């Protein structure tokens, strides 16, 4: 039985919100207030904070034929979407598997994330898997 090397990386992609500086991602929906000349609150602005990862980067060695579960769990997912990539090619966005899906690949939904599951792992499943968090626009 052959051993397979699987690498899991976790990345956060900043949201592409025009006019919103990356540093403004300090609090998810944390109100910031704009005061007028009478020191009255004139406008409330919702600011989004990028989620952090609960899952950790890992290197796995699995046996051919085993089931692989790659976790991607974040601190909060509201306003963001998870993308899975295999060797730099996007294979999932949100809860959808893209392209010609291999029925051995599927997503297990979890609170604030998911697991990418690969049944009956084979040599073609070796590689670098990346879970990315991106703004949901």
In short:
The chain is mainly beta and 137 residues long. The chain is built from no helices and eleven strands.
Number of strands: 11
Category from helices, strands and their pairing: mainly beta
Calculate Rg over CA atoms: 19 Å
Order of helices and strands: EEEEEEEEEEE
Which residues sit in consecutive blocks of at least 5 with pLDDT less than 50?
15-35
Ends distance:
45 Å
Describe the main β-sheet briefly: 6 strands, mixed
Query: What is the overall silhouette?
Result: globular
- Give the number of helices: 0
Describe this structure in words.
The protein is mainly beta. The protein is built from no helices and 11 strands. The protein has strands at residues 3-12, 30-35, 41-47, 58-63, 68-73, 80-86, 89-93, 96-97, 105-110, 113-118, 127-135. The strands form 3 sheets. It has a 6-stranded mixed sheet, with no helix packed on it. Strands 5-10-9 form a 3-stranded antiparallel sheet, with no helix packed on it. Strand 7 (89-93) and strand 8 form a beta hairpin. Mean pLDDT is 78; it is low at 15-35.
